[in-house]
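Researcher: Please predict.
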Amino acid sequence: MKIKTWIKYEEGYLPPRCRKLRYKVCEEYVNINLSETTLAELQLAFEDLSYNGAGKIFLYKGKLWKKTSIRNICAGGEDEYRYHTPLEALAWWNEHGSKYFRYGCGSYHGEEYTKKAVLKQARSDMRRFLLVDGELYSRTTEPRYCIYTFGLGHNHGGTSLSVDYRYNPNISKTRYFSALQGYEAVSEANRIAQMRGDSDYVGKFRADIKVYMPELVKVNPKRQHGDGDSLLNTFDEIAMNAPSAFIAGVLCMATVSSEIRNGGSNDNEKGI
């Protein structure tokens, strides 16, 4: 399928009796190819059953794909521009939006402003999408479990077990689990909730990832991820050991005060 796309770019030209290139802004509509296939060509790899989860995740040509939504294309506009499907939204914004306007100003000119560069970017972006029996899918990554904590413990905030698709640099590798570690993730979430005094959450966690192709599981937090933010880790430790949310709050404020007096942690000094 061809998606009509509005592009703007710079083109250099040499005026008569001049030695230095001048630049003009050009614009045109081009057709960018959207790959198509059928559901029969896809292999079911995972299923995300979490709240607002991705649903079924398929393998196609070595990449993982999921059904996409309008919100993954743009921030809204259904009523104003009258598109009702992700495919319609993608087509509308490529034809009417300014995503592929590239031109410099003043003395700023270069390869990134050429027609070749703009077309390269547009084609690269379109490869993130796949049309499957008329429905738009988008590239995704391998699902994994992550344990999040909120507030100061003792049901002030809470503990959650979520399905994520990337690592958060602020969160420790000890809070992540692969799609095959559902039992371990649930057990650890219950332990943390118990330690924090989040009694409303204990026993309510579920392993919400179904794995149909275990050979695709490559997530290994202990090898791939870091220790998270040291200050947030300290807050977590305080919440898990404090006898009440009030005490946890006082200790967290004292920790922040100490950080300020000491000029911030080493991580902050490094800009991490």
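Model: The longest strand covers residues 2-13.
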